[in-house]
Write a structure and sequence with these properties.
single chain, 8-stranded mixed sheet, 32% helix, FAD/NAD(P)-binding domain, 22 strands, globular, alpha+beta
């Protein structure tokens, strides 16, 4: 097929922060490379990117040497610099990770070691020192991570789109990909509007729908997205929290627990929990999509996961259905909080990749196929690490084109 028959060199599916960062990275790494982004929503960052607590993660939680650890540590510094250069609201607040029970102390000390292995400055605190940072927070011990911050990731994604567009990339909204036809010469897709795009290579950054897109392209990804909804509250008395406060996470799960986040707008977000969503974009219990639910239930890994983690899941479900239970979880960190202090806020849905054996994929999962790159697991800290992730995906697709 001749070069003139292609509409672009690289087609990116997905207009969240990872897809737009990839487009941005491609225009910077290889000027002249033609890039098209197709996004099914009417604008950028409508799902995971725009529905989170806005935290710039330090990388302290992640296994040394993993993509998460490498990308989060360098990505956090790059994100702060990017926001400063483009006038995007942000603040480096630091955060506390607080142990409220003695059984959590060994895990807290393990985080100190992990942070040091990842090159992250960590300060250990006793109860009196906790009060110096957060007067209303109670705990037996804590660590302070100074490189954590907050920003507006939706604005970051919009800036990626603007910069990529200025360099010649095309970003089209309202274009849901319905058909993918992969050939030895490249890939052709047809979108919901009837638009057909022929590209030399395709990058799948479809987030909540990435596994479906992989199968549409003829690849078996070896995982399925199981959506977990994270429910948030806003704190009616934001003066109770100065910065960011987290519990000690359970290392068996890729979730960080209910935490307190002072956002860039000055309010304090409380949450999230993690409950199974009944649709990939199921932002409340009333949103049910039977076909998507059957896909989840038909995946062997979903049942293996449920058998392994049902006690944890039951606790999360209880906190979803009972505001009293959710308040009790918050009060472990912030004893002054009452149920009346918590006002329902916008929920988010996490695209959690689950393997066939029930393992919850913990690291970024990027797989290559002929003329195709699939980003199959990009949970938190993907927004923090979006600049290095974009460069990595761009490097891989450019290697395929060379």
């Amino acid at each position: 097929m001749s070069a003139t028959a292609f509409d672009c060199d690289v087609l990116v599916i997905g207009g969240g922060i990872v897809g737009l960062s990839t487009a941005y990275a491609l225009t910077r790494a290889a000027p002249g490379t033609s890039v098209v982004v197709l996004e099914k929503e009417s604008g950028a960052a409508r799902h995971q990117t725009g529905r989170n607590s806005g935290v710039i993660h330090s990388g302290i939680y992640y296994r040394p040497g993993s993509l998460k650890a490498r990308f989060a540590v360098c990505g956090a510094a790059e994100m702060v610099k990017f926001c400063a250069e483009h006038g995007i609201p942000h603040e480096v607040t630091g955060k506390l990770i607080v142990a409220t029970e003695r059984t959590e102390l060994p895990r807290l000390h393990a985080l100190v070691q992990r942070g040091r292995e990842n090159g992250i400055p960590v300060r250990e605190l006793g109860p009196a020192q906790i009060a110096e940072y957060e007067p209303h927070v109670r705990g037996l011990a804590a660590i302070r991570v100074g490189t954590t911050g907050v920003c507006d990731f939706g604005a970051v994604a919009a800036q990626f789109a603007e910069a990529a567009g200025a360099a010649g990339a095309e970003v089209h909204y309202g274009e849901e990909v319905r058909v993918v036809d992969r050939r030895p010469w490249g890939v052709a897709v047809r979108a919901s509007s009837g638009r057909v795009v022929r590209a030399r290579a395709l990058v799948n950054c479809a987030g909540l729908h990435c596994d479906r897109l992989a199968r549409l392209a003829g690849d078996e990804p070896g995982m399925r997205i199981v959506p977990f909804r994270g429910e948030y509250y806003d704190l009616a008395r934001p003066e109770l929290v100065r910065g960011l406060v987290y519990p000690v996470p359970d290392p068996a799960f890729p979730f960080l627990g209910v935490h307190l986040t002072r956002g860039i707008e000055g309010g304090v977000h409380v949450g999230p929990n993690a409950v199974p969503a009944l649709a990939r974009e199921g932002y409340d219990w009333s949103t049910v999509r039977p076909r998507e639910l059957l896909t989840t239930l038909g995946w062997p890994g979903s049942w293996q996961m449920a058998r392994r983690h049902w006690r944890y899941g039951a606790g999360e479900l209880h906190r979803s259905l009972s505001k009293r239970a959710f308040t009790s979880a918050v009060r472990r960190l912030l004893p002054d909080v009452t149920a009346d202090d918590l006002r329902p806020a916008e929920a988010g849905v996490r695209a959690q990749a689950v393997l066939r054996d029930g393992t919850l994929a913990d690291d970024f999962l990027i797989r290559e196929s002929t003329r195709t790159i699939h980003v199959l697991n990009a949970p938190s800290p993907a927004a923090t690490a979006s600049l290095p992730i974009g460069r990595e995906v761009a490097r891989r697709v450019l290697r395929q084109l060379s």
